[in-house]
């Protein structure tokens, strides 16, 4: 008795979510995708800006000083 109800629920959920997924795919097809232009993006191999950011504990982290001579991937934004 429970299995047919679950199958029916899954079918309805699938057909309700399908247009949302197609819309998200259609929006993502543009090259810019609403994120601005690439003119301010740093080039691969370019020197890191001399700025100080906050680490995960709230302490200061001077980027150029701490990462000098190392390869790094830097993610900006809220990570929570």
Written overview of the protein:
The mean pLDDT is 75. The radius of gyration is 22 Å and the shape is elongated. It has one domain (2-36, 46-67). The protein is mainly alpha-helical and 80 residues long. It has a two-stranded antiparallel sheet with strand order 1-2. Strand 1 and strand 2 form a beta hairpin. It has helices spanning 2-27, 63-67, and strands at residues 52-54, 60-62.
Strand numbers in spatial order across the main sheet = 1-2
How helical, in percent, are the residues? 25-40%
CA radius of gyration is: 22 Å
Strand content: 5-15%
Query: Which regions contain 5 or more consecutive residues with pLDDT less than 50?
Result: none
Shape call: elongated
Structural class assignment: mainly alpha
Multimeric status of the protein: single chain
Number of domains: 1
Number of strands: 2
Question: Topology as H/E string?
Answer: HEEH
The pLDDT mean sits at: 75
The biggest beta sheet reads: 2 strands, antiparallel
Compute the separation of the termini in Å: 41 Å
The number of helical segments is 2
């Amino acid at each position: 008795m429970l299995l047919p109800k679950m199958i029916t629920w899954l079918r309805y959920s699938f057909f309700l979510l399908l247009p949302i997924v197609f819309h998200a795919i259609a929006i993502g097809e543009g090259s810019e995708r609403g994120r601005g232009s690439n003119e301010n993006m740093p080039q691969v191999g370019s020197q890191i800006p001399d700025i100080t950011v906050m680490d995960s504990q709230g302490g200061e982290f001077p980027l150029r000083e701490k990462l000098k001579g190392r390869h790094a991937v830097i993610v900006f934004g809220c990570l929570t």
